[in-house]
Each structure stands twice: as C-alpha cells, then as structure tokens.
Amino acid sequence: MKKRIISSVIALILSFNVLAAQYTFAVSENTAGPDISAETAIIYVGGTGEIIWSKNPDKQMEPASITKLMTCLLAAENLDMDQEITITAEATDVIPTKMYLQIGEKIRVEELMYAALLTSANDAANALAIAVAGSIEDFAVMMNERAAAIGCKSTNFVTPSGLPAEGHLSTARELAMISEEALNNDIVRKISGTTSHTIPATNMYQERELKSFNLFLDGGERKVDGQLMSIEKYDGVFGGKTGSLSKEYCTMVTGLDCDGLEVYSVVMGTDMDCRFDDMKALMDFARANISRYTAFEKGEQFGTAKVKGGALNKVKAVAAKDGVVNLPEGASASLVTTKCVYTDNLSAPVEKGDKVGEVEIYIADDLYSTVDLVAAESVKPGWFLSQYGISNFQTVIMGLMLLIVMGLIITVIIMRSHNRRKREKARKARLEKEARMQLEREEELKRRNWNF
Length: 452
Prior knowledge:
Helix content: 25-40%
Strand order of the largest sheet: 2-1-11-10-9
Number of domains: 3
Shape: elongated
C-alpha cells in the first residue's frame, strides 16, 4: 500500500514538472512583443535560427539597401580586396550615386565595399557587381543562387543596390538569414562594423570621407538619407545595414551581441522617423528575453570518430564553438541534453579542424541547434592494413607480436632439433658403449677359453 502511495506521489510530481515545463515554453512563446510601426519585423538568433519574436516575418517586401549585404558578401567571396577596378559607364548609371564614381576612375575593391556598406553608395554596389560577374544582370543570378544556398525561398534580387525594381523582394525572416551569412564573413563584418573611413584620392576624384549610417555603432548626430538623426550608441551592435526608398519606406538590420548570442533584428516598411526607434525596441526586447546557457565550450571533446584508411583509426572530436542555448524563461538547464552524430565513412587524410560530426543540442527532447565536431588532430593515410580499420600503431604491435611468435616457433624448432641431436648422440654413445662392453666380454671369453 505504501509503495502504491509513493509511486502515485512520484508520478504526480513528474506530471507537474512536465506541465510546468510546457507552460514555461508557452508563456515564452506568447509573450507580448515590442510596439513598433514597421509592417514586418523579426528577432532572429544566429546559429540556431530561433525566432525570439516576429511580426509578419514572411511577408514579401522591398529590402532596399539591406540588399548591399548580399552584394558585399559575394564581392568578399569572389574578389581580392586589393584588386583595382576601372569604373565603367554602367556602374555610374544609377541615381542617386552617393559616391560619385567617375567613368575611368581606378579604385580598390575594399574602398567600394566601405562606400557600399557605410554610406549605401549605389554606384559602388554596381561597380562591385560588374567586377564580380561582368554585368548587373549576371550578378543578380549569382545573388539569387547564393540566397537559395542559404535557404531562402521567398527572396528575389534584381539589383545589387536595392533600388526599386520589379520583383526585387525579400522577407524579414530571410533578410535575417542573409545578414547572418554576410556578417559571418570576416571582411563584411569588419567593414559593416566600422563607423568611419577615408577613401584616398584616386586618379579622378578627391579624398572621400565616409561615416556609417548605422548610428547604433557609435551614436551621435548625422544626416541619414537626407534627414538629420540623433541616436545614442547601442552597446553590443557589431554591424548591420540601413535602407530606404523614401522617407515613408525604410528598412534596417542590426547584428547584436546579446550575452554571447548573436541576434539579428530586421524591420521593413517603417518610416524615417520610426526606423531607429523600432530597431531599438527590437534589440531591447531581445536583451530582455535572452537567457544564455552554455551547454559546452569550444574545444570540449565529444568522444572519437572512426577513421578508415588512416595512420590512426580514430580521431578526437571536439566542439568547433561554444554550445550556447537561449533558455526559455523559467526553464531549467537540466532540460538541455546533447547527442553526438559522427560522420559515416570518414576516410584519411583528415586535417585538424575538418568536420567529423555534429553535436545535437536538445531542450526538453526538442532539437534546438547543432554544433560541428571537428578533428582535434590531423590523420595521415595509413599502411596497407588501415583499410581494415587497423592503425599504424596496431600494425606495429601486430608485427612485433608476429615476430615474437615466429621467434618462439623458431626457438622451439631449434631446441627440438638440438634435443633430437642430443638424444641421438646419447643413443649413439650408449650403443657404442654397449658395443665396447660386448667386445670386451667377447675378448674376455676368448682369453678364458685360450687359457684353458
């Protein structure tokens, strides 16, 4: 009876804990969001794809100059930053130009990227597109292919600048994904997070002074798209991009380091007066609703991955980065669990840092995110037995064992042969002794017979 009562109490407690956990998640999901004027918006956690809050995140709208993040990502991936470009008429055929590039002007790729990201120079974006693909039309094809590779399904780029064009559309959700991809590129991240830059005089134009339109980087008062804005610096902002098609239609994205988690906030379809206020409201909300928990640290070992054909038949698998989780409000860290999945048919050579698997992070049995497992050391191709999963060391040990066994066999054979010869010698000596004794007896008999 007592056992049944105890079992019932335990079951009741467990049921309460499960319900409490579900209630905690539900409250977190239904928390009232920030009050903003933008038509669409999203707060997106980089690395996990988690949505902290959103408003019409899949509504297609014009991205405006947020487009330039994709343009500069492709430039960073396909051009040398020191490469000098000669400006063509096609690059300058855009209004407004912002940078006032001259036909025949020679300028480095990196300077064009600073102009495109800091002051949203449309002519700089065009020049980068032509340098990468040969024409704006061909570059648009590359932009859409890259967007598809990121996972975008509702994005279509037509221009590298973001100026209005039929069919040039995206969504807040997909712009957050594109922004994460772009700002994960070291070159784009560095330039996007720069507050000011000086472009040296060129063969056809004087020195140019640039100041970023993303006032959250350093704060202060500045004219942005023709309107004087006064904004306070927002600690933790590491990059982003503003955009506008008019004072009534503006967009913006920011990357924010939020207690170790990178959060990307996007607003689309707001006006010039509200754009920065809307963005601040999103970032404030992100800060208030992020609860960082580190499930494991970068470099932590998660067992070993099997290697075929290598000098080693297994390699230590370590986390490529911290396993950071945003715990829902009130949720216990005990709900966080991990599971390792190693790469099948991993073959040598394996270089240090190569991906060898993934760590899956779960919250209450729901997959939250994955972190790559990488090789902690290099594994060179092994000897002939490595194809059977036998390492070089094991091959050496097996060889030594074989030598020892062979040595023992040879020793036994030699000893047996020696003993056989020894026995044969002893037998021969015995026979010889017996023959001598027999001869002596016969001679003794002869002597005796002769005497008688």
